């Protein structure tokens, strides 16, 4: 879609819809990251069982037929296939016959970086909506004075 061919009011509405769809996507990303952080130490309840597996999220574009613009949507919430780490802890309830416990494949540094990136993207889209509202108000003021 060519943004220059959109009329002013439509462009403001479409930019707000785009920002809102991106905010929903980043909000979903933050929920996944939060779940990963909360379960970073969650092991199995049974000996030799698998611990919590890190979740991942991917996005896709989806055409909004009303506006003709591409919106951001969640494509999939998946499982990270990175191998689990092992800790030697023979007294742990999830220890296997050799005394090793599978630990979640959650790297807190990666999760914190993802959280920071998602937060910044969310904030940028909030600013986009604020700017759209300001432009809308300015347009209405200009129409009143002409």
Q: Whole-number average pLDDT?
A: 90
Instruction: Specify the number of helices.
Output: 2
Shape category = elongated
Most strands sheet: 2 strands, antiparallel
Helix content: 40-55%
User: H/E series, N to C?
Assistant: HEEEEH
Tell me the number of structural domains.
1
What share of residues are in beta strands? 15-25%
Unreliable parts: 1-6
Distance between the termini: 31 Å
Radius of gyration: 23 Å
Give the helix/strand class.
alpha+beta
How many β strands by DSSP?
4
Strand order of the largest sheet: 1-2
Subcellular location: Bacterial flagellum basal body
GO cellular component, one term: bacterial-type flagellum basal body, rod
Domain Flagellar basal body rod protein N-terminal: 19-43
Domain Flagellar basal-body/hook protein C-terminal: 98-137
Could you characterize what this model shows?
It is a single chain. This protein is α+β, with helices and mostly antiparallel strands. It has one domain (3-40, 53-83, 107-145). Helices cover 47% and strands 20% of the residues. Strands 1-2 form a two-stranded antiparallel sheet. Strands 3-4 form a two-stranded antiparallel sheet. β1 and β2 form a beta hairpin. α1 (8-38) packs antiparallel against α2. It is found in: Bacterial flagellum basal body. This is Flagellar basal-body rod protein FlgC. It comes from Pseudochelatococcus contaminans. Residues 19-43 form the Flagellar basal body rod protein N-terminal domain. Belongs to the flagella basal body rod proteins family.
């Amino acid at each position: 879609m060519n943004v220059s061919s959109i009329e002013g009011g439509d462009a403001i509405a479409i930019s707000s819809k785009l920002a809102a769809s991106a905010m929903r996507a980043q909000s979903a990303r933050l929920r996944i990251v939060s779940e990963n952080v909360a379960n970073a130490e969650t092991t199995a309840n049974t000996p030799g069982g698998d611990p919590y597996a890190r979740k991942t999220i991917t996005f896709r574009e989806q055409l909004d037929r009303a506006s003709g613009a591409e919106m951001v949507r969640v494509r999939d919430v998946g499982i990270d296939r990175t191998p689990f780490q092992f800790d030697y802890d023979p007294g742990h309830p999830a220890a296997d016959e050799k005394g090793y416990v599978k630990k979640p494949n959650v790297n807190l540094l990666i999760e914190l970086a993802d959280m920071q990136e998602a937060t910044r993207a969310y904030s940028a889209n909030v600013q986009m909506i604020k700017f759209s509202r300001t432009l809308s108000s300015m347009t209405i003021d200009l129409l009143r004075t002409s």
